[in-house]
Design a protein that fits this description.
Immunoglobulin-like, disordered C terminus, mainly beta, repeat
Length: 712
């Protein structure tokens, strides 16, 4: 393997070792050459002699060099056509006759690289004795240009075996032969000629590593395997491509000359070590062409786009448009005319900076507003030459004088950039009929250091307030008063006070009832005295939380008249004007009941404390010689009726009186209806007593529940 690698590097040395094994092989007798890099290749000075032999006389021999600055004469000598300081790292020479063609590679290296390589070669010769060692198989590397034209198959090289054995055959294997992609290469079993069956594409596969071996008639391997390297020589068959678009760059207006805007790079699929992929960039077209047709320059090697005009010309506000489009070309072969090209469009946007302050379109604005009205009263207009899509254009307004009561506010209309001046607190004509505001405007973004706001960035707004007939105002509002319920009809509740804010109009005021839900009140239309027309009842459904609410109107004499509304809250104090009520009024008991506690009575009162409980429960005088029942007080609100003996089945009316604690107290004399029923098998029969049939269990349960609730 070491020997074969060295052969690829310096075949002119190693060929000496195998000279006696070689037959005539069509093609270059040496595939790889080394030239020491001079400071400059001088025109017409011979650099190298390349030996090509098609083994049939070299009829119509022609050479082609990958670099157009070099030429190979018919005798094989390589010359530079002009003084060349940089030829790259490699040249490729293609030779063709009627019978064969081949490719040679010329590597351009430094002196140190070449001396070190030769030293290693001769050291290896000394150690291994290579010059005198014979090899059974000699498989020299093969170089094949891509995109060859038919006919195919085409001979590209030859494998040589030093020993001739009867029936021996060459066999080739590897990727491109018996592995995918199959069938690209084949070998003549007898002669060892290697041929290619179709055109190759270096961008698909650049190198093939094959193995060659020799077999006998039975197929047994007698030599090898040896490695056969086939390299595909690049042809300039791929155009440069811009793959990273869209390409958009930004540059601030007024930027210094030479400011980098963006970088554009193209890709070329050809061999990056050759001129086939050596790209150079150029601007083909600029749109628009003003203020200069050459606003930008592109570095031919790096692809950096920079500004080339003075900062004065890079003024966004004076440009026809702040957007420029450049058609950029990338050309391979180092930009030579023979190179292939690809193009792309670069869009460059000139970004705005805040170099123009906003200015009011006039020094003074006028506005008129009616008193008592809020909302926008005037739109202040400004001009700004900066970009409307940026904070360098958007305006910010401030009221700097004339607004001590904070009655005005100003906001920016985001669509028009106008200042919308609004009244946020109603104005009063009688207090001030005129207002003068001083307003300044600035940008959201700060101005650049050498620009300042001038007098045009402030304006005056003169506001005239128009008088409006305003409704009278009650003082206070709402009005509150406390009265006892049940005061006599015609009693005075309150005298209201309403004034007209239009002090300059000298108007009169009249009063009327607006809302009086219970119909209890009236108002004197002239002096505003409110009186009662009915009894005030705290227990009325129109009273909520002891408060009765009514509304009254004050109407001035304007044309048209204006109205003010006042609210009156009357807090009603309680009077003991409701007798207590008793519940329940019906009770049932069995004629043979052992528990003679008949019922628990409760009392309630619509009045408020202290006109309610504690209640006093009493039995009225009982008829007959024997007392049949008694009543026991359980607590402040409940008492219990108890039979003193079992009674016969019948209906009884028990007279009971309940008295509240008011001063004076009120008493309710009522009767409790008692039904004595027959009870058999847990069933109560009150039919003889005109009573409903009710389960005894339910009656007992109800009595027990009521009794329990009476004792906390």
């Amino acid at each position: 393997v070491q020997v074969k690698s060295l052969f690829c590097l310096f075949p002119q040395v190693l060929l000496l070792a195998f000279a006696e094994d070689l037959e005539c092989i069509p093609g270059f007798q040496q595939k790889v050459f080394y030239i020491e890099q001079p400071s400059e290749f001088t025109e017409d000075q011979p650099l190298l002699n390349l030996v090509f032999d098609d083994c049939q006389g070299n009829s119509k021999l022609n050479f082609e060099v990958s670099n157009p600055d070099f030429k190979v004469e018919g005798d094989g000598f390589l010359f530079a056509l002009k003084n060349v300081s940089d030829a790259g790292r490699a040249l490729f020479v293609h030779a063709r006759t009627e019978h064969a063609e081949d490719m040679a590679e010329i590597l351009i290296v430094g002196a140190d690289e070449k001396r070190m390589a030769l030293k290693e070669i001769f050291k290896l010769e000394s150690n291994l004795g290579i010059p005198r060692q014979k090899r059974a198989i000699l498989a020299t590397p093969i170089l094949i240009p891509e995109n060859q034209r038919p006919p195919f198959p085409r001979s590209v090289g030859k494998v040589i075996r030093s020993e001739r054995t009867e029936g021996a055959k060459f066999r080739l294997s590897g990727k491109g032969v018996d592995q995918e992609p199959k069938g690209i290469f084949r070998i003549n079993e007898i002669s060892g000629d290697v041929s290619v069956t179709r055109a190759l594409d270096r961008e698909a596969i650049a190198n093939y590593e094959l193995e060659v071996e020799v077999t006998d008639l039975s197929g047994k391997v007698i030599d090898g395997p040896d490695r056969l390297d086939i390299s595909v020589i690049d042809q300039n068959d791929n155009r440069p491509m811009f793959k990273e678009g869209p390409y958009v760059g930004h540059v601030m207006e007024g930027s210094p000359t030479g400011t980098t805007v963006m970088r554009m790079t193209a890709f070329d699929a050809d061999d990056a070590s050759t001129d086939n992929a050596l790209l150079r960039y150029n601007i083909l077209k600029q749109t628009p062409t003003k203020p200069s047709p050459n606003m930008f320059y592109i570095d031919p090697e790096k692809g950096d786009i920079v500004t080339v005009v003075s900062p004065v010309l890079l003024d966004r506000e004076t440009m026809e448009t702040p957007k420029y489009e450049l058609v950029v070309e990338a050309k391979d072969m180092g930009g030579l005319d023979v190179g292939l090209t690809g193009t792309a469009t670069a869009t460059i946007l000139i970004d705005d900076k805040n170099d123009h302050p906003p200015e009011f379109t006039k020094r003074e604005f006028q506005a008129t507003v009616k008193e008592g009205v809020t909302g926008v009263i005037v739109n202040l207009t400004v001009g700004d030459r900066d970009d409307p899509a940026t904070g360098a254009w958007r305006a910010v307004y401030t009221i700097i004088n004339g607004n001590p009561g904070q009655s005005f506010e100003i906001h920016t209309n985001p669509q028009t950039n106008e200042g919308m001046l609004s009244v946020v607190k109603p104005l009063d004509y009688e207090i001030s009929a005129f207002h003068t505001l001083l307003i300044k405007v600035e940008n959201e973004d700060p101005l650049i250091p050498d620009i300042a706001y001038g007098p045009s960035s402030t304006a005056t707004v003169q506001i005239t307030v128009e008088d409006v007939n305003e409704g009278p105002i009650f003082h206070p509002n709402p009005m509150t008063v406390t009265k006892r319920e049940n005061i006599p009809v015609g009693s005075v509740v309150l005298t209201v006070n309403a004034t007209d804010p239009d002090t300059l109009q000298h108007q009169t005021i009249r009063y009327s009832v607006f809302k009086d839900p219970a119909g209890w009140l009236e108002i004197n239309p002239t002096n505003g005295t409110i009186g009662t027309t009915a009894v005030l009842d705290r227990e009325s459904p129109y009273v909520h939380n002891n408060i009765y609410t009514a509304q009254f109107l004050a109407i001035d004499s304007g044309n048209p008249p204006a109205t003010g509304t006042g609210t009156l809250h009357i807090t009603l104090e309680d009077v003991n004007d409701n007798i207590p009520s008793l519940y329940p009024t019906l009770a049932k008991v069995c004629d043979d009941a052992k528990d003679l506690r008949v019922v628990v009575l409760g009392a309630s009162d619509k009045d408020l404390h202290p006109n309610t409980d504690p209640f006093k429960f009493e039995l009225s005088k009982q008829s007959g010689p024997d007392k049949l029942w008694r009543i026991n007080k359980l607590n402040n609100t409940h008492a219990q009726v108890i039979l003193l003996q079992n009674l016969q089945k019948a209906n009884y009316n028990i007279p009971i009186s309940v008295t509240d604690s008011g001063k004076p107290p009120l008493t309710n004399n009522t009767e409790l209806k008692l039904q004595v029923c027959s009870c058999k098998k847990s069933k109560m029969d009150c039919s003889a007593s005109d009573a409903l049939h009710i389960s005894m269990a339910l009656i007992l349960l109800s009595l027990g529940s009521l009794f329990c609730k009476s004792f906390p």
